[in-house]
Specification:
CATH topology: Rossmann fold
Mean pLDDT: 83
Order of helices and strands: EHEHEEHEHEEEH
Strand order of the largest sheet: 4-3-2-5-6-7
Shape: globular
GO molecular function: glycosyltransferase activity
Protein name: Phosphoribosyltransferase domain-containing protein
InterPro entries: PRTase-like (IPR029057), PRTase_dom (IPR000836)
Number of helices: 5
CATH architecture: 3-Layer(aba) Sandwich
Organism: Yimella lutea
Radius of gyration: 17 Å
Number of domains: 1
Distance between the termini: 26 Å
Largest sheet: 6 strands, mixed
Structural class: alpha/beta
Keywords: Glycosyltransferase, Transferase
Helix content: 25-40%
């Protein structure tokens, strides 16, 4: 029997973006920059940029998960990283799809802490085991999350060559790595 899953549809994603954006506005926090954590935070960060009318959207790439529930000992930032001087004095909204362990978010939060005027965190989902509590969250869950952008297997030229070799599984992407 498969474990229970949280399924995020694109329709739910649109609702999550608007609700989190409204919570940011209602809190009085006016970010100068949306800093998305790649890859899972990219769709959410871009959408929040539009919803909050913030054109200054940047990306930081952090590697932590290497497979299904397989992680490095600690998350590491991959180049290029944003120049700290470019963040100086800004109010930054750090964005990811899920606060799972929270270690990735903590790394990014610590990276910006000495350079920005203020930072806050927004995630679509927050899990109870996270070490970082987000300032803005759409939903709390401890289930595995199927995101619409990562629930299908990637399309690669090697897969294209093998498509005619037999039936294709439709659940291949469902067990790929989960957020931070």
């Amino acid at each position: 029997m498969a474990a229970e899953r949280e399924v995020l549809t694109y329709e739910d994603f649109g609702r999550a973006v608007r609700e989190v954006a409204q919570n940011v506005v209602d809190s009085g926090f006016e970010p100068d920059l949306v800093l998305s954590i790649a890859r899972g935070g990219l769709p959410f960060g871009g959408a929040l940029g539009y919803a909050l009318d913030i054109k200054n959207v940047s990306v930081v790439n952090v590697e932590f998960y290497t497979g299904v529930d397989q992680r490095l000992d600690v998350p590491i930032m991959l180049p290029p990283t944003p120049a700290a001087v470019d963040l100086s004095g800004m109010k930054v909204l750090v964005v990811d799809d899920v606060a799972d362990t929270g270690k990735t978010l903590k790394l990014v939060q610590e990276f910006v802490a000495d350079h920005v005027a203020e930072s806050k965190i927004a995630c679509i989902y927050e899990k109870s085991r996270t070490i970082v509590n987000c300032d803005y969250v759409w939903k709390y869950t401890d289930h595995w999350i199927d995101f619409p952008w990562s629930s299908q297997p990637p399309l690669t030229s090697s897969q294209t060559k093998h498509r005619s070799a037999g039936p294709r599984r439709t659940d291949q992407g469902a067990d790929r790595c989960q957020g931070d």
